[in-house]
Design a protein that fits this description.
The complex is a heterodimer of chains A (331) and B (395). Chain A is globular and about 60 Å long. Chain A has one domain: 3-Layer(aba) Sandwich (Rossmann fold). Chain A has 331 residues and is of the alpha/beta class. Chain B has 395 residues and is α/β, with parallel strands linked by helices. Chain B has two domains: 243 residues, Thiamin diphosphate (ThDP)-binding fold, Pyr/PP domains (Rossmann fold); 133 residues, Rossmann fold (3-Layer(aba) Sandwich). Chain B is built from twelve helices and 16 strands. In chain B, strand 2, helix 2 and strand 3 form a beta-alpha-beta unit. In chain B, helix 3 runs parallel beside helix 4 and helix 9 crosses helix 12. The longest helix of chain B has 30 residues. The radius of gyration of chain B is 21 Å and the shape is globular. The N and C termini of chain B lie far apart (60 Å). Classes of the chains: A alpha/beta (331), B alpha/beta (395). The interface between A and B is large, with 45 and 46 residues.
Chain lengths: 331, 395
């Protein structure tokens, strides 16, 4: 009987027994990311284990290592919230001194990356450390109990951006750290999503294999903070892609004029000129993404806020050089 | 053991530190410029650029990241170093707890500089003493030689007890003032300070370790106890390493408090750092005039040498504690520590606190004389006028 090769290694670096919430999309992201890293290290150095992890404080840190246990099957260090990139820089310098082959994986959430860790991240990227920084973006401070971050999307409920008589919820556009990272002209920047695991794994492997710094921002669902059904994590993440809320792209060496856009699927029509994506006509309205999440529930009484969200999404795509049309739901 | 022939160089305190870093074969330096520390890392960068030292240098974007990167390097198993001063040290504060809690033998040179506001770049010990409870050991250098020797000994001590050490020098008075420093030939430093043998690394893929885990109330307490014990055990290591240093290189550091003409003293000055050089010189002059005085220089503020202090205190009638620092709402920080250390002993000398030299205010031989006159009078009368005197205050 022919045995089908599994689509990704069966080696585990993020072991069962961690204390993440049921349905945690970020746990899925880390599981995939480390598998991708392992494959990359095996292909590049012949050693699937040749990587170490520096992780910022956050959900995925707290749930992974409670003394005397650890879910990590790779060397792992956690030093506070704002500095995974700085710690990774030091680890990498020591590896270099030692002549150690392999790569460092730095991990931070959106709070630890977009807000308190942004300076350390910028330093690490600018100094060209041989580190992949993975930002798992669940779009709020989930570890402390769902407070808004600069990566929280417009309109979202959080405990510090509650909707009310004088509030529509979060009232600022989402800050796209991937674009800030790309401005450092580093070899590789990508966005990814657990809604497209194959694309995510491919990007993580690419990031892990190249020399120098890379930044990957992965969208992952948080059923607790998003007030979404536990079993729909991947479906919701996929809808974010298919409705235009979450773009999948790659930027190499800060070349903003040649951003590589991945096709969103979901029936969207992609228009290319000279191989480049210049326009996308989305077929699924963003309401399909929003309606599965309690954090956006209040917006359905405020249709003007959803229209404003559409405008912001268009503006974000414009930054990527793509004209998008976003449908409204059929009446 | 090869014969010891020192190499004499005229260097600043900061260059003495940089040479010690080179001679200690430090592997990773992560640092950020700040006056008056900057020339340490400039000199290290120059050593690297000239091929004189093989160090991975990480020019980080803040002191917070300096300590974070140093922690990352040390956790990986490297001998790691950084340097800072004042505002930079304050920015590092959070990371200092991490370095000691993670039991990493990092060595840092801290140049004592006053904290703002008002903005100041001059000597003041409050910056380092404000880090008292971070779990770091603290060595205060009196002169450039002690900066050099201190860094070399600090690595040897830190790597035995797995506790980080600050080697502290004075802004400008040492950091930028040139003096003769006897340096040790590389092969002899290598004999004294072999490569670090880390307990754990971040390159052991077969047996990976997680560093920096969460500990519940069931475990946290014991972690703290172990760090407390390490400080206690360090006292013996400090003495052993200080003695070995003396046997090898002629400068003995086995005492955590250096005693200068204290044996038959009626009263002594107690203080730390470069100002004790002035005090020792003044003691010589006062002795010539018939004062029976001595100087006790606290080399190690953490761990605090309370046993040695007791041995001194029980033989004298008075202790003038000279603090170039202050804890607001209380008194000079060394004064608090010294009184506290003697409380449960039979030693009860008269103790007075003189707050001197804050923000780099000059502290002279004449000032020591005036303090000596004041102390002599107080001891004769047998009572204090005031416990804490802001000695230089413009009245």
């Amino acid at each position: 009987m022919a045995v089908r090769k599994p689509p990704i290694t069966t080696r585990e670096y993020w072991a069962p027994g961690h204390a993440a919430c049921a349905g945690c999309g970020c746990a899925t992201a880390l599981k995939l990311a480390t598998k991708a890293f392992s494959e990359a290290m095996e292909e590049k150095f012949g050693d699937p284990n040749a990587f170490a992890i520096a992780q910022a404080t956050g959900c995925m840190e707290v749930v992974s290592a409670v003394f005397p246990y650890t879910a990590w099957k790779a060397p792992w260090v956690h030093v506070a919230f704002e500095n995974a990139a700085a710690v990774a820089s030091g680890v990498e310098a020591a590896w270099k001194k030692k002549g150690q082959k392999g790569k460092i994986l730095a991990i931070g959430g959106d709070g630890g990356t977009a807000d308190i860790g942004l300076q350390a991240l910028s330093g690490m990227l600018e100094r060209r450390h041989n580190v992949v920084y993975l930002m798992y973006d669940n779009e709020a401070y989930m570890n402390t109990g769902i407070q808004r971050s600069s990566s929280t999307p417009y309109g979202a409920w959080t405990t510090t951006s509650p909707p009310g008589k004088y509030s529509i919820g979060e009232d600022k556009p989402k800050k796209w750290v991937a674009l800030i990272a790309a401005a450092h002209q580093i070899p590789y920047v990508a966005t990814a999503s657990i809604g497209n695991p194959f694309d995510f794994v491919k990007k993580m492997k690419k990031a892990a294999k190249l020399e120098g710094p890379a930044f990957v921002q992965v969208h992952c669902t948080c059923p607790t903070g998003w007030k979404s059904p536990l079993e729909k994590g991947v479906e919701i993440a996929r809808l974010a892609i298919e409705t235009g809320v979450w773009p999948l792209f790659e930027i190499e060496n800060g070349d903003f004029f040649n951003i590589k856009i991945q096709s969103p699927g979901g029936g969207a029509k992609v228009k290319r000129e000279g191989g480049k994506v210049v326009a996308i006509e989305f077929k699924k309205p963003i309401e399909e993404y929003l309606k599965l999440q309690g954090r956006f529930k209040h917006l359905f009484k405020r249709p003007e806020a959803i229209d404003e969200m559409r405008e912001q999404i268009k503006a974000m795509w414009k930054l990527l050089g793509v004209d998008v049309t976003l449908p409204k739901p059929e009446e | 053991m090869a014969e010891y022939k020192p190499i004499r160089k005229v260097v600043s305190g900061n260059y003495a530190a940089a040479y010690a870093v080179k001679h200690a074969r430090v592997q990773v330096v992560a640092a950020y410029p700040i006056t008056p520390q900057t020339s340490i890392i400039e000199k290290i960068a120059e050593f690297i650029a000239n091929g004189e030292a093989d160090i991975q240098y990480v020019p980080v974007e803040s002191e917070h990241s300096a300590m974070a990167a140093t922690i990352g390097a040390s956790a990986t198993g490297a001998r790691a170093f950084t340097a800072t001063a004042s505002q930079g040290l304050a920015l590092m504060h959070e990371m200092l707890h991490w370095a000691s809690g993670a039991r990493l033998p990092i060595v840092m040179v801290e140049v004592n500089r006053a904290l703002a506001p008002p903005w100041s770049v001059w000597d003041d010990q409050t910056d380092s003493l404000a880090q008292r409870d971070t779990g770091w050991m603290q060595f205060y250098a009196e002169n450039n030689q002690e900066v050099y020797d201190g860094v070399l000994m600090a690595f040897k001590i830190a790597e035995q007890v797995n506790v980080p050490i600050m080697v502290i020098e004075s802004a400008f008075i040492l950091s930028h003032t040139y003096d003769v420093v006897e340096m040790i030939p590389q092969e002899l430093v290598d004999e004294f300070l072999p490569p670090r043998k880390p307990l754990y690394t971040l390159t052991d893929f077969d047996n990976p370790k997680a560093i920096g885990a969460l500990a519940t109330p069931d475990d946290y307490y014991e972690f703290r106890y172990k760090l407390a014990k390490a400080h206690e055990e360090a006292k013996k290591i400090i003495k052993d390493v200080g003695k070995e240093f003396g046997e090898r290189f002629g400068r003995d550091y086995s005492d955590m408090i250096e005693k200068y003409r204290t044996d038959d003293a009626d009263f002594i000055f107690l203080g730390m750092g470069s100002l004790m050089g002035t005090v020792k010189e003044a003691v010589d002059r006062l002795r010539d005039e018939g004062y029976k005085v001595g100087a006790a220089k606290v080399r190690w503020f953490r761990p605090f040498p309370k046993e040695e202090l007791y041995e001194l205190a029980k033989k004298v009638d008075g202790i003038a504690v000279v603090d170039r620092n202050f804890s607001f709402g209380q008194e000079g920080i060394l004064f608090t520590e010294a009184k506290g250390a003697l409380y449960n002993t039979s030693a009860r000398p008269l103790m007075k606190n003189y707050i001197v030299g804050l923000g780099g205010r000059d502290f002279t031989l004449n000032d020591v004389r005036k303090i000596a006159e004041d102390m002599k009078g107080l001891i004769e009368r047998g009572e204090l006028d005031e416990e804490v005197e802001w000695y230089h205050l413009k009245r």
